[in-house]
Every structure is written in C-alpha cells, then in structure tokens.
Design goal:
Number of domains: 2
Strand content: 15-25%
Strand order of the largest sheet: 2-5-6-7-8
CATH architecture of the largest domain: Alpha-Beta Complex
Distance between the termini: 80 Å
Number of strands: 10
C-alpha cells in the first residue's frame, strides 16, 4: 500500500476523486444503494460534479459520535486504535484503487477476546464504524452486513494488505454489535480487476451502461445541448419510433393518475371538513395551513425543451374540421 497524507480536506478530496474509493466500489457490482456504475463513471470523467456528501442531521451526528463509538469498542475489547485525518491509501499494484480507514487497531492487551486474538495472530487490523438506527439495522441480512458494506471492507483490506477488519456497529445509541471479517483474497482480486477494467474503459471513452430509472436524470442532464437548425431524419428509425410510442403511453397514464389524485384529494378534503389532521389506523392525514409568502423572481438557467407529440392522422383532421 502507498500512504498519502494531506494538509487540508480539499486536497484529500481531490486525491479521493482520482481513485475508486472503498465506498464507491460496490457501485461497480450493482450493490450500492447510493450510486450506480454509470453515475460513478460520469463523475470520474468530470462530466458532472460529484454529489455532495450528505449533510443531514443523522449523518452529522453519526460523524460526531464516531470517535466515541470507536473508543468504546476499543475499551471493551482491550485494544488500542488510531485514526488519521486526511490520509488516503492506494493499492500498491492499482494506484487508482484507494481507501480511507476509520481506525487502525494498533495494539492489543493480553486479555483473550475476538479482537485481541485476531491482533496477536495476524497483527494490525481495521475498525470500520457504523452508527445505525434500529429501524435500519433490523433490515440487515444477518449474520452479514449489507452488501455494500461487505464490499467496502474487503476493498479496504485489499488496499491495506491486512488480514482482518471489524465492522463496529452502534444500534439506536445503546446497543453494540461487532462483525469480524477476514480478508477474502478472491473477493479483493475481483474488486481490483473490476476497478482496473472500469478505468481502462473510461480511458477509451466507454462509460458503464446506464441503469434505468436510477440514471435517467443524469442522462438528461448530459444531453442539454441542441445544435440550432439541425434536423435528424428518423423516418425509418424503428427504435426511436418505439421509444416515442412508450413515452406517449406513459404520459397518458401519468395524466390519468394525476387526475385521479386530484379527484381523490377533493373527496378527502370534503370528508374531513375543517380538520387540520385526521388519524386513521394505517394513515395520517395532514391538511394544515401554509402561510402566505412572497416568491422573488429568479433567473432560470437555459435548458433543453424536449417535447414528444403524436401526429394527428388525416382522418383525425377531417373529423375535427366537421
């Protein structure tokens, strides 16, 4: 492994952007709940800015509590841990495969337990911390962690060249679980190869195939330019004709669904009268007032106005004229 140390978060993020990190590699296997392979490819090519790290309250508090969770696990299992800020590690054979680690397990006491035994047998290991709501944890595929976390840890072990890691989980703020993971060299080699192939394809200008509907918004953003006056003769293009047929059908379904929703909304409001809320066994209806606000005018950026309309046949035109 090669260790890179940076003075600022900006420099660390820049180095991270040039690699596939341990939190990104699951996307190359279709196992990430946050990212598709296509989206990752678009970001690494610089075609779109990467999504900002989530700053919601749950994530913010998770980061604040990370040190306390890690130290609690270290105290319970009689090991010493160390974390390093703005450090990025790259694979010795694949420099575009990188990772940042939450903590290293650097020493262990003489008391026998799962972590001290691993340390005395294999040397230093990794500690990956997860702060998880119990509603989320109940959906974990026990005894495994979610696929993207399993890939993340094996990616880290492959980059670090270490033999073991611990996924340390605090559930609901008051329950601790640890998952011991040994290095799986076959999985590590598969991750490294997938990353190597990913970069090789990007260098050749080949992106991973989009996953629909997840990548639809990104594909649309990437096609926001039209050459003025350019007309495509697609009279014999059956693929485009079929796509337009599907689009037209979907539009009618959406319009009917919107009409149905508006009709049902009217019936619900009529039924609850002036009530601000209505409580049911399986639903909660909220119909409170929203204060009047003044919306300031803003400058709308240019965008591509794509419209698909069905042509009216000659028969339709004749009937309409009567």
């Amino acid at each position: 492994m090669t260790v890179h140390t940076f003075d600022t978060e900006a420099a660390w993020l820049d180095a991270r952007a040039k690699c596939v990190s341990s939190t990104e590699s699951a996307a190359l296997f279709g196992m990430s709940p946050y990212l598709t392979a296509y989206e990752l490819g678009v970001e690494k090519q610089g075609m779109l800015a990467p999504a900002e790290l989530s700053k919601n309250e749950r994530v913010t508090w998770g980061r604040r509590l990370q040190d306390a969770i890690a130290q609690g696990i270290a105290d319970d299992f009689k090991v010493a841990i160390a974390g390093q800020e703005y450090v990025y590690i790259t694979h010795e054979d694949e420099p575009r495969m990188g990772a940042s680690f939450d903590y290293w397990v650097t020493a262990a006491g003489d008391e026998r337990n799962a972590l001290t035994d691993l340390f005395h047998e294999h040397g230093p290991g990794l500690l990956e911390i997860k702060n998880v709501d119990w509603l989320i944890f109940k959906d974990w595929p026990l005894p495994d962690a979610p696929d993207h976390i399993e890939i993340q840890v094996q990616h880290q072990l492959e980059v670090a060249g270490l033999e073991w890691a611990i996924i340390g989980v605090l559930i609901g703020g008051n329950r601790q679980e640890i998952f011991v993971r040994r290095r799986d060299r076959q999985v590590g080699a598969a991750i490294k190869k997938r990353i190597h192939d990913f970069w090789h394809d990007l260098e050749a200008g080949v992106l991973p195939s989009p996953t629909m509907p997840q990548d639809a918004d990104i594909v649309i953003k990437l096609h926001q330019y039209a050459e003025p006056g350019l007309v495509l003769d697609a009279q014999n293009d059956l693929v485009l004709a079929n796509l337009c047929e599907e689009y037209d059908s979907a539009r009618h379904v959406a319009k009917e669904a919107e009409t149905a929703q508006r009709t049902l909304m009217a019936k619900i409001l009529t039924h609850i009268g002036d009530a601000e809320r209505a409580l049911l066994s399986e639903f909660s209806v909220s119909a409170g007032m929203v204060a009047e606000t003044e919306v300031r005018a803003y400058k709308r950026p240019a965008y591509r106005n794509c419209r698909i309309t069905r042509k009216r046949s000659g028969k339709d035109k004749t009937q309409s004229a009567k």
